[in-house]
Automatic annotation (TrEMBL):
Gene3D superfamilies: Aldolase class I
Organism ancestry: Eukaryota, Viridiplantae, Streptophyta, Embryophyta, Tracheophyta
UniProt-listed InterPro entries: Aldolase_TIM, DUS-like_FMN-bd, tRNA_hU_synthase_CS, Znf_CCCH
Zinc fingers (C3H1-type) by residue: 42-73
Presence of the UniProt keyword Zinc-finger in the record: yes
Annotated protein name in UniProt: tRNA-dihydrouridine(47) synthase [NAD(P)(+)]
Catalysed reaction, written as an equation: 5,6-dihydrouridine(47) in tRNA + NADP(+) = uridine(47) in tRNA + NADPH + H(+); a 5,6-dihydrouridine in mRNA + NAD(+) = a uridine in mRNA + NADH + H(+); a 5,6-dihydrouridine in mRNA + NADP(+) = a uridine in mRNA + NADPH + H(+); 5,6-dihydrouridine(47) in tRNA + NAD(+) = uridine(47) in tRNA + NADH + H(+)
Length: 520
């Protein structure tokens, strides 16, 4: 009990060990530009994709003007050794790291249309519905080329597509780790609702391909939404109209709770919590021009101790939102302290009957899920975020109502599934393999925090518990619980082969990293 009060995990005595000695190494902090330059200097020959597929140097339409290399023999001479296993998907020909085991599969959608990108680049895309609605409300419409016929067809709430979140397991939109392969993995493990990573409206309207890639959807995601973030009604409404035109989605979620400085400084994310009239205008315009349901995600407030969602919740449904997700922390609080579920319950009970309310914060076991649903029956569902990053099998635990004492072998098989999905999504050539490795390592920087059920004196583990130094029931389990980025890299090598010479890795969310100094 004393350990729990100090947020220390109560590990069984037989698994405790002295903390490892400090290495004394001072990590060299490198800028992104320096890392990029080092990668470029160490880069291998990039064979032309068309030549790689056809094995014919004359097949490339660009000939000598092609920015890729056409020397097949030189490419073969420096190509890394193939990785053992079956190619999960291939359109890469000679570049594939699983050469000779190819099969084709197309199971993703929401690819970015090149013609749409061209129109966005040239600022010639028209937004008939969004601009007409903005004008009718007297809201600012910043100049763009107008459509010739500006007739607006409004969709009353009763005509909107219906979406029911009640009792469905909702995987939160997660930056970096919430990529398509990870969402596929969570679907396999029991998630019902998935949502893409947050995309910035301005980047989408500028036709940035990397931002549009965040909207990609796999065919297994049968209830799928995208999350966007913007500052003004015209920017957001044009974006939702464009997404509705170009993509297949079941709902569009507008982020009004992101605490990141870069987002807040642009008057987006949780900065909107200080501008309720703008929140209303964004939701009202966006929801009125689409049949696709609009949902929003908020925090309790911008400043700690100054909650304000309770004063807005009764009106949000009348603005046109189908659902609202409330993260039980303020922007100032970020992820410190526990989520305030009592406040989420209060807001839920004050919401109009036509608005579904979803709670978010610290759900880490089926008991947490059951408690929130029992304490507040009006709550439609709970969104699961960090709990899914640390143990994506939480969806299985909730559906089967058990604490899964998962073995290291079972966890490794889950990682193998992620790698397979990653190679299908990012490609099985060298670039695809290393992209898959990067996102695997980002995920491992979260999942090492999981403490196996069989090692705990008290279950279930709480998300804020810090473990003492301990070891697992076998060598693989001990490796998986290591907080060393070097050990995460070793796990990646078990699944994707050796890392390239000079490989470095620093997770986005924390300072510990893997570089050449750590490996001597």
């Amino acid at each position: 009990q004393e350990l729990i009060e100090r947020s220390m995990a109560p590990i069984k005595k037989e698994f405790l060990c002295p903390p490892p000695p400090s290495s004394g190494l001072v990590q060299e902090k490198k800028s992104k530009r320096q890392l990029k330059r080092e990668r470029r200097e160490q880069s291998t020959i990039n064979l032309c994709p068309q030549v790689a597929r056809t094995e014919d140097v004359d097949s490339c339409q660009y000939k000598d003007k092609c920015r890729f290399n056409h020397d097949i023999e030189a490419f073969k001479a420096q190509k890394p050794d193939d990785i053992e296993g079956q190619c999960p998907f291939c359109a890469y020909g000679l570049s594939c790291r699983f050469l000779g085991t190819h099969r084709k599969e197309k199971s993703e959608m929401n690819f970015f249309n090149k013609e749409t990108q061209r129109l966005l680049w040239k600022n010639k895309m028209t937004f008939t519905n969004a601009d007409a609605k903005l004008k009718s409300l007297g809201l600012e419409v910043r100049p763009m080329k107008k459509a010739k016929d500006s007739s607006l067809k409004l969709h009353p709430r009763e005509k909107k597509k219906l979406i029911d979140f009640r009792d469905k397991l909702y995987l939160a939109p997660l930056t970096t780790v919430g990529n398509l392969p990870f969402r596929r993995l969570c679907k396999v493990l029991g998630a019902d609702v998935t949502c893409g990573e947050m995309a910035m409206c301005t980047n989408l309207l500028q036709g940035q391909a990397s931002e549009w890639a965040l909207l990609r959807r796999h065919s297994s995601e049968d209830l799928f939404g995208v999350q966007i973030c913007g500052s003004y009604p015209d920017t957001v409404s044009r974006t939702v109209e464009l997404i509705d035109r170009e993509c297949t989605v079941d709902f569009i979620d507008i982020n009004m709770g992101c605490p990141i400085d870069m987002v807040v400084n642009k008057s987006a994310g949780s900065a909107l919590l200080n501008k309720p009239l703008r929140m209303k205008n964004i939701v009202e315009v966006s929801s009125s021009i689409l049949e696709t349901p609009i949902t929003i995600k908020v925090r309790t407030a911008f400043f700690e101790g100054k909650n304000r969602i309770d004063s807005l919740i009764a009106d949000i449904g009348n603005w046109g939102a189908t659902a609202v997700t409330i993260h039980g922390r303020s922007r100032q609080q970020r992820y410190s302290k526990s989520a305030d579920w009592d406040y989420i319950y209060q807001c839920t009970k004050n919401a109009s009957t036509n608005l579904q309310v979803i709670g978010n914060g610290d759900v880490y076991s089926y008991l947490d899920w059951n408690k929130h649903k029992s304490d507040c029956p009006e709550l439609s569902s709970c969104m699961i975020a960090r709990g899914a990053l640390i143990k994506p099998w939480i969806f299985t635990e909730i559906k089967e109502q058990r604490h899964w004492d998962i073995t290291s072998g079972e966890r490794l098989n889950i990682m193998k599934d992620f790698v397979r999905f990653g190679l299908q999504h990012w490609g099985s050539d060298t670039k695809g393999v290393e992209t898959t490795r990067h996102f695997l390592l980002e995920w491992l920087s979260y999942t090492f925090r999981y403490i196996p059920v069989g090692l705990l004196d008290v279950i279930p583990q709480q998300i804020n518990w810090r473990p003492p130094s301990y070891f697992g029931r076998d060598d693989l389990e001990t490796l998986m619980m290591s907080e060393s980025a070097g050990d995460w890299v070793r796990i990646s090598e078990m699944l994707l082969g050796k890392v390239p010479e000079g490989f470095t890795f620093a997770p986005k969310h924390k300072s510990n990293a893997y570089d050449r100094a750590e490996n001597g």
